[in-house]
Specification:
Elements: H1 3-8, H2 11-18, E1 31-36, E2 43-50, E3 56-64, H3 67-80, H4 85-99, H5 124-127, H6 129-138
Antiparallel strand pairs: 1-2, 2-3
Helix pairs in contact: 2-3, 4-6
Length: 139
């Protein structure tokens, strides 16, 4: 393993990736969307339920992504409950700007874990998968 890979795949990232087990796929959730990274082929399917005001209440995930993509999806899932489509879209835009070097790391719980992945453009598509899948489900 190269030293770059060790810096990217930290125990914290691997633990966050494993934490996705707390968000199992649930066919009963009414809103579903998916996203695919053009850069690495990673995919994620997401199912959501909303409250009466359009805020996310439950999340189910089916990830097929690298540990960085899974850790980012875990950050999404742990921070998305209570947020609406506008919050998700704004966060997605901020993450895109941050990955492009045009802004600070967005203020989203757990996103700091994947901060080192910004230096790996091949992982950028995997980082935004959960936000993209959520926006697909919410559209």
């Amino acid at each position: 393993m190269s030293s770059g890979a060790r810096a990217l795949y930290t125990p914290e990232i691997l633990a966050a990736a494993a934490g996705l087990a707390a968000f199992p796929w649930d066919e009963a959730l009414p809103l579903q969307g998916d996203a695919r990274s053009r850069s690495c082929g990673s995919t994620i399917a997401m199912a959501l339920s909303l409250d009466g005001e359009g805020r996310i209440m439950r999340i189910g995930l089916r990830p097929h992504a690298c540990a960085v993509g899974q850790a980012a999806a875990h950050a999404f899932a742990t921070g998305a409950v209570g947020r609406n489509r506008e919050h998700i879209a704004a966060a997605r835009a901020q993450i895109g700007a941050w990955l492009a070097g045009d802004g600070p790391l967005p203020d989203w719980p757990g996103l700091h874990l994947i901060e080192a992945a910004r230096d790996y453009p091949g992982r950028h598509g995997a980082i935004v998968l959960a936000w993209d899948a959520a926006l697909a489900a919410l559209s």
